[in-house]
Amino acid sequence: MISRLDSAMKAHPSLPAASSTPGLESLTDRQRECLQLAATGLTSSGIGERLGLSPRTVDEHLMTACSVLGVRTRIQAVACLAVAARRADEPRSFLP
């Protein structure tokens, strides 16, 4: 799942602004990175090891991301990113 999110984010640098998910454009790069790693099933400790952060710092990034996105759990926050990535991959069948 991380590769799909990564490829969608790289292929669509303006993805957050184009998304209908409120607050997605307000996420920092670190918050987005933590969410993407959480999407792979890593714990806060695992994410921290990958990024060179303490698990507590990772939790802070994830909690702030949840607040920005207006959700309660990291799973809901990951779902917001996944929905945005999926929408970016869907071709439009009509002209705006």
Can you put this structure into words, describing what you see?
The protein is an all-alpha fold. The protein is 67% helix and 0% strand. Helix 3 (29-39) packs across helix 5 and helix 3 (29-39) packs across helix 6 (74-89). The radius of gyration is 13 Å and the shape is elongated. Residues 8-19 have low confidence and may be disordered.
Topology of helices and strands:
Layout: H1 2-11, H2 15-18, H3 29-39, H4 44-51, H5 55-69, H6 74-89
Percent range for β-strand residues: under 5%
Largest beta-sheet characterization: none
Q: Shape from CA axes? A: elongated
The CATH class turns out to be Mainly Alpha
Helix fraction bin? 55-70%
Structural domain count: 1
User: What would CATH call the homologous superfamily?
Assistant: Winged helix-like DNA-binding domain superfamily/Winged helix DNA-binding domain
Rounded to the nearest angstrom, the radius of gyration is 13 Å
Quick rundown:
This protein is mainly alpha-helical and 96 residues long.
Which structural traits does this protein have?
mainly alpha, Arc Repressor Mutant, subunit A
